[in-house]
């Protein structure tokens, strides 16, 4: 017998949730009595209760990919711990909104000259550092210059090479001049390295103290272990509803998930996809599954044998069965990659490029052409790279056998993977967060002189197109350039891209959120602590 819905009672319950007049437990009980399923009631509670953000409480979040070697230097940011923490205690000129649009952070507005070679950013005059010092144009100038110049060790150097000058025009205006037009500059300013720090008198920045102008200030913490933060009363934007934030580094996926189930944390940054269906059955947990431009890559050093032969590189690309990996490793929570780092979630997507499919016979033919029959290679990975990273490489090893390739999987320690393995070993598995535009991604990881050119790929035509596309304001011509660049990376480059993985993370159901979730990073664009709140 089918239970009938009581729409009047359901409407009253939704109103009560919006107005904060009912607890979640009572809401669930009455909703199910009104004929709703547990999952439908949970969805109604979430969509209703989040309309009235509540202040208060301590938000405890378990995050993956934290290392004891991490630092406060924004030029060294690479781990999820650094990225998540940075978005709590530091600010940027611009930010990516939950709906994917570009929004203001420290910059209230910005505009360019006619050819986008000069950009002017107006700063929010109410912004202040946790130390009480106002944020001024001098802080922005010093912070951007931290990543510029021959002596910088910043990984973001490649993003800013076209900038010729950064200057203050009064206390709250910053003028950025470029050698040629850069249409994406306001988007580029959301890059997690480009955090704004207090300026020193000599034009350098004080990154060592951990002072920032973000929604929460650091009370205490230890890299690779735990961070305690409290609300910054001088925060210049909306949000920061929690009184305090506790960030715990839980690299082990089982420990992370157990902490969520037992209520020791209120949210986790990454869940084990193998057990996500079990979590979804728990009425106390809400699982978020967000398609994104994040990518799983498998870069090969193009200047190191045997990967210095394009036929070997393409054979390894043909020896991977992406459909099986998405089905068995990502459990469907991914978009198939095509060996160029440009996803359907980015603008200028070249949807007419043929999809590379699993073809072990063609791979064998290419190996024969290269004189590399019986190829044996090592691929390095770790559990902390992403949920299922080791399993993916093991599955790839099995798939490659059909092409006569012996892929040996080397399991590395979680701690220090990105400092000790990535960019040092010639074949690795890597997890990239989402970038907003193809220019940002290609400038970071494919440009010839980029510090994070993870495959050491050098292609003169690609770099020529990258420079032209930056300044091209005609969208059609720009799209054509990105299409040619994608083909060059696909057919000549040194990176296998099995998939663009969804961000799959979870929260306790008493944690509320807005209508949309940013697809730039896990945890609502790494800003869950300032965007979410507890139900009353």
Please mark out the parts with pLDDT under 50 across 5 or more consecutive residues, or reply none.
none
- Could you tell me how far the N terminus lies from the C terminus, measured between alpha carbons in angstroms? 35 Å
Physical arrangement of strands within the biggest beta sheet: 8-9-10-1-11-19-12
Radius of gyration in whole Å, from Cα? 24 Å
Task: Give the overall form.
Answer: globular
Task: Quote the beta fraction.
Answer: 15-25%
* Helical proportion, percent range: 25-40%
Number of helices: 18
Mean pLDDT level: 93
* Biggest sheet features: 7 strands, mixed
The number of distinct β-strands equals: 21
The computed structural class is alpha+beta
Secondary structure blueprint with pairings:
Blueprint: H1 7-18, H2 24-33, H3 38-49, E1 58-63, H4 80-89, E2 94-96, E3 102-104, E4 107-112, E5 118-123, H5 137-145, E6 163-168, E7 173-178, H6 185-188, E8 216-222, E9 226-231, E10 244-249, H7 253-262, E11 267-268, H8 276-280, E12 285-290, E13 295-299, H9 310-318, H10 322-328, E14 334-336, H11 360-370, E15 376-381, H12 389-401, E16 406-411, H13 417-420, E17 430-432, H14 438-445, H15 460-471, H16 475-492, E18 495-501, E19 503-508, E20 511-512, H17 522-526, H18 528-531, E21 533-534
Helix pairs in contact: 1-2, 1-3, 2-3, 9-11, 15-16
Overall description:
The protein is an alpha+beta fold and about 525 residues long. Helices cover about 30% and strands about 20% of the residues. The chain contains 18 helices and 21 strands. Strands 8-9-10-1-11-19-12 form a seven-stranded mixed β-sheet, with helices on both faces. Strands 4-5-7-6 form a four-stranded antiparallel β-sheet, with helices on one face. Helix 1 runs antiparallel to helix 2 (about 25-35), helix 9 runs antiparallel to helix 11 and helix 15 (about 460-470) runs antiparallel to helix 16 (about 475-490). The longest helix has 18 residues, at about 475-490. The radius of gyration is 24 Å and the shape is globular. The two termini are about 35 Å apart. The mean pLDDT is about 95.
């Amino acid at each position: 017998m089918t239970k009938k819905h009581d729409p009047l009672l359901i409407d009253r319950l939704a109103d009560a949730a919006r107005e904060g007049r009912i607890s979640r437990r009572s809401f669930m009980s009455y909703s199910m009595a009104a004929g709703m399923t547990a999952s439908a009631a949970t969805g109604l509670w979430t969509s209703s209760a989040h309309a009235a953000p509540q202040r208060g409480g301590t938000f405890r979040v378990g995050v993956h990919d934290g290392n004891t070697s991490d630092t406060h230097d924004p030029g060294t940011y690479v781990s999820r711990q650094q990225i998540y923490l940075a978005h709590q205690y530091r600010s940027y000129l611009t930010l990516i909104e939950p709906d994917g649009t570009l929004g203001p952070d420290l910059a209230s507005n910005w505009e360019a000259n006619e050819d986008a070679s000069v950009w002017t950013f107006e700063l929010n005059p109410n912004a202040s550092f946790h130390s009480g010092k106002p944020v001024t144009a001098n802080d922005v100038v010093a912070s951007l210059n931290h990543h510029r110049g021959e002596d910088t060790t910043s990984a973001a150097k490649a993003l800013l090479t076209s900038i010729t000058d950064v200057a203050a025009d009064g206390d709250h205006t910053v003028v950025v001049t470029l050698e040629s037009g850069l249409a994406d500059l306001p988007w580029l300013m959301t890059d997690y390295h480009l955090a704004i720090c207090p300026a020193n008198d000599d034009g350098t920045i004080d990154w060592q103290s951990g002072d920032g102008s973000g929604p929460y200030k650091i009370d205490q913490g230890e890299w690779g272990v735990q961070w305690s933060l409290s609300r910054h009363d001088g925060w210049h934007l909306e949000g920061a509803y929690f009184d305090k934030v506790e960030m715990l580094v839980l690299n082990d996926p089982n420990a992370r998930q157990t902490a969520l189930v037992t209520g020791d944390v209120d949210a986790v940054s990454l869940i084990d996809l193998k057990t996500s269906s079990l979590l979804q059955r728990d009425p106390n947990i809400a699982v978020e599954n967000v398609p994104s431009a994040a990518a799983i890559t498998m870069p090969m050093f193009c200047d190191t044998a045997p990967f210095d032969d394009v036929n070997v590189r393409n054979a390894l690309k043909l020896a991977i069965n992406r459909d099986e990996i998405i089905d068995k490793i990502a459990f469907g929570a991914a978009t198939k990659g095509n060996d160029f780092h440009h996803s359907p979630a980015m603008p200028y997507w070249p949807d007419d490029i043929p999809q590379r499919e699993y073809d072990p016979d063609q791979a064998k033919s290419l190996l024969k052409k290269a004189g590399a029959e019986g190829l044996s290679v090592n691929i390095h990975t770790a559990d902390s790279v992403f949920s299922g990273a080791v399993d993916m490489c093991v599955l790839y090893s099995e798939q490659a056998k059909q092409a006569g390739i012996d892929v040996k999987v080397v399991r590395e320690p979680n701690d220090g993977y990105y400092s000790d393995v990535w960019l040092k070993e010639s074949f690795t598995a890597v997890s990239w967060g989402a970038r907003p535009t193809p220019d940002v991604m290609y400038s970071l990881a494919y440009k010839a002189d980029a510090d994070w050119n993870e495959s050491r790929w050098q292609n003169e035509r690609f770099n020529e197109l990258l420079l032209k596309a930056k300044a091209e304001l005609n969208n059609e011509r720009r799209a054509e350039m990105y299409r040619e660049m994608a083909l060059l990376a696909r057919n000549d480059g040194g990176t296998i891209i099995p998939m663009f993985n969804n961000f799959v993370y979870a929260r306790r159901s008493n944690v509320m959120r807005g209508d949309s979730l940013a697809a730039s990073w896990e945890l609502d664009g790494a800003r869950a602590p300032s965007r979410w709140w507890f139900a009353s």
